């Protein structure tokens, strides 16, 4: 479902080009889950951004469901993001001026594929049903991240990309959120690519890859 | 809290965005109301009620009732030279000259010079707002003068018009008519008697005339006219009946002019000569109430005699049958070479349109049959060119015609006038 | 909807069959707009800014459009293409001239112009035309051809008894009559029935020449003969064409007046747009995160830019349409004053009610939306270049704002350099000097506005550095200064608005005040006689002879006037010519701006000996200076005289030459004018009253039926002052409103940052500062900032005042005024600025004051 072949990416810095990814190959099957680990600055987030079509590689090929992401135009990549992907960030990036319920359904509505039953179920399962009319600023951090996960899943994406989804939470909330996330991913049958630096979190996922100096280390079998 | 009105309570219960929406709607409503009120109260620019359409009154209002004016009645004797001048007691009057001319190459060329006088109000009506004594106001006049001139040859038909108000008594204004020595003028257009003063006691003031007009930069004419016969009075010693109910006008003519002179048409000057016809007519109600217009002919016949005929259209009660000849009023005069006039009554002549042309967006008869059975006359009259529409403020058709006998041979020429189409 | 029991959501449910892109656009737009739901203050600020900007601009434009419509109708009434004839011998034209020329084949038409008084005291212009001879197209849309009988346009309508009195709908509205009625004049004569004619200018009655001659008691005399354009050049020897430039059209004369108004309107528009700019910037800054989120969720960047443009248009329409309505309302209020001053200054009739062509609406909408677009373009640009990978980054870095400040400072310098350049080097020839003057002022204002934040920032930095010591007080002050620096980017646009409004206010107040002083002085110097008498022309000499025998009168000052042409190297120009009695009673106080060798007495002596004085307008327009020779056209050939001096002539739009009255009679055959009567000093009040009484009745000896008209000096004074006040009423109203807009800008700016402020102040409150202290600090911050702005506005205001009196006025009206400075107005401006700031700060401060501790605590919990 997600295929990345020989991805290279460098950024221009005042000190000259900084190579972040130096030939990364990665593939992820439908419904599978993969944890991407590595030290800070190892290129995890860059890889995630490339997978989401938020950025384009200098060379290499990325395809999603057989569609070549690396060759698509910006609007086409945006379309894919809208309809096939779900994104969860470390900072929750909720829309402060929309209510909890409207935030939850935002991406699904943007994609034109909202299903009220599924949205309702998500609200209930995320424990937000009682706060549907509140605004994000009135929620706790854990609640906000649960809402962000709900927003990503409400449109039934094929792939969920998560960037340190629990990085901003205390341990207890992190556990709740992670459990919920994995449960929902499993139930909705979508694939998951999660960037994390926590081995404890990574161990809950099916596969684990580690980035180091722009290259993937060999996958540890499990 | 409990002192708040129900509306207020309802309002505050709404969610915040709904309250804003409601307030916005209210604002929009108020604005809309103000706007529509403002638009309603705005002075509408063109709200002037349309001026009441003047009742038809026939062509150029010549059929309007004439209270306060002198009526033309039979039995009055024409007096010259006084009657060559204006008759302010009557509403309408004209000096009407048409000339059938030929240039050096023998090509026919028509010239018209016409002066109309129209009273805007009866002579006794106050002339203005003020009766302030001592202030002479030369502008105050109830007389309107209107002059038309035309030069036509082939496709060319140049028309000009001059308007002027009347002059005060005793002051020569830009337009007027003087009986003796004769002069009729509007601006620089004039028709002037040129009888030498030595002959003025014996000769008629109209027996020698000079006529001139400048139509535009490239078109003007100057002709001298010499009468080769006497003045002739139409109808009943000058009273010409115009409707079955006795409505009529005073009408005399000088049909015997020999014309010479120069005509400049489109910058080209031609020496011309030919024949001309002057009509003098005045009245206060020329047409009957229901008459729409007339067809009028003045013909110089080949044998030297002259023929005048007219048909006043409409006026009969029978509205169902427009073709009914009895709806029209016909009259005419046959004038012998020595000036003996034979009046032709309504039953003594017939005038029948033969063919129509499309002119200025109208259908006009430009071929006619004129029969005077009692005189053995059966003539076909055809316009030299149908394009002789006078684009003046009161528009009409006026142009030269040819006359042919039943055998098709030329029998003369003349002028045709058609009004009220 | 998520569950049935909830209220309908803002985001409505999407039907699945909808085109996905449309659904996306809709959802994204609603999400973008939801920002204003949470921040209604910003929405209000935007709308109010647009509303105010478009209201003031369209108000001014409505006045201009209305006045121009009146001029257009006045010009269309008698086409300027018509030539006018006069007699070579200078004798008045009459019926005989009309007849002679018509009989010579010239298409001339007579015209009578005059004023009548109705029996209710209302005065109206009367135009008498001869409809039959008027050249085609001579009157508006060819009123000659009688084809359009609808609105009585038939020429016979005027002629046919009882005739018609045609008038504009506006005139009818002021008359209290209905169409068809016949008003009665003060002389008891009935006018012909009224007929509406929308093409006529307001205040003019069109009647047949016969009626006009009676109403104006003209007899056979007429004012002029009109000649159709393109008539062959040859005229009879006794006549000649009146030089075409005899009368400047009202449109030309008043152009500068309207340019002044337009400049004021433009300033108001700019100040209003500053609010809009500030609000848009805020709305964008606060939505940067939202925009990035939407991009991440799959809304293409181009769609977002388009949606923001849609938002701009929606906001623009919502703000502009009510703004235009408010502008109309404003114009309706101001128009009577404008109309009155145009009438008094330029004798241009302007309807006192609005009459607007379609392009007014389109133009107002376009200008305001265009202004909005310039303010919004920056927002769209930043959106288009949005870096989506910077999700959640800080808004703008310190370096960013540094760079922006440097750029602003550069632009400010550039604007000032250009402004000074315009002042030092005259505009290229062909550019109207008034435009150049306004460009200079605009550049100076723009430069100052741009420099303001830089200067304020530098001042704060400097104050912070100067602040020594470590007392709690200085700590608080240092915090307040640092906090103010943080607030500055938010408040800078409002402060710019305040600066512009204050400077304009100071400049205009100074100009008007200076003008008032100069003008009133000048009036006193010029109006030396106690009474002014205008005898009927026929009885003029008898009156003079009689008056000269009267012991009550110390000096008799004759004055006559006529028109002539100044013959210069580059052609002729029309000038007014006046003749005065060069009596010491008059010359002692008559002000002169420049004379040969600065010798007043000599100038007056040379006037007596045949030299001329010219007014300042003429001197500026022609470059004539004392000592130069000037040549005037006179009935007996060119008249040459030396210019002995230049005098100020405020309020006169025309160039004027002054000679002695004797010379005017001898050489220019000037008609009798008026006499100024200087009363014998110490004249008893009873004697004076008796004399006045005597002067209002006809002179029995002359057998003349008409009485002279008598005006006393006080009423001339009063009238002149009234004209003056009305002329500047509009200007002052507009500056006042602009100041109001600036206050509004400040207020909305403060309101918009209220939440942010609370977040900043809450920690201080938590650290143990009382609310009173916090409130005091807030108010002191704003008051101080406004005071600093006002201090910067002072020199700018003086500069503006100088530009107005020395450049703009000269270009617009042809007179220069001395620069007067009013320190009282400065103090007033400083006070006003602080007051405005405190008023604007009052509501946010009050809300902070009233905020319950729970709300302040929330600032910590929600981060």
Textual characterization of the structure:
The complex is a heterotrimer of chains A (222), B (421) and C (863). Chain A starts with a strand and ends in a 6-residue tail after the last strand. With 222 residues, chain A is of the alpha/beta class. In chain A, the strands form 2 sheets. A 6-stranded mixed β-sheet of chain A has the order 6-7-8-3-9-10. In chain A, strands 2-1-4-5 form a 4-stranded antiparallel β-sheet, covered by helices on one side. Chain A contains 7 helices and 10 strands. The model of chain A has no long low-confidence stretch (mean pLDDT 87). Chain B starts with 5 loop residues before the first helix and ends with a strand. In chain B, 8% of the residues lie in helices and 46% in strands. Chain C is built from 24 helices and 20 strands. In chain C, strands 6-5-7-4-3-9-1-10 form an 8-stranded mixed β-sheet. Chain C has a 6-stranded mixed beta barrel with strand order 12-13-18-15-17-16, surrounded by 4 helices. The longest helix of chain C is centred in the middle third of the chain and has 55 residues, at 472-526. Residues 1-18, 138-153 and 244-248 of chain C have low confidence and may be disordered. At the B-C interface, α2 and β4 of B face α3, α4, α5, α6 and α9 of C.
What's the CATH class label of chain B?
Mainly Beta
How many DSSP H or I helices of chain C? Answer: 24
- Poorly predicted regions of chain B are 36-56, 127-135, 316-325
Based on secondary structure, the structural category of chain C is alpha+beta
Q: What's the count of strands of chain B?
A: 23
Helix content of chain B: under 10%
Tell me what portion of residues of chain B adopts beta-strand conformation: over 45%
Report the major sheet of chain B. 13 strands, antiparallel
| The CATH superfamily title of chain B | AttH-like domain
What portion of residues of chain C is helical?
55-70%
Main sheet properties of chain C? 8 strands, mixed
Unreliable stretches of chain C: 1-18, 138-153, 244-248
Instruction: Name the average pLDDT of chain C.
Output: 79
Overall 3D shape of chain C: elongated
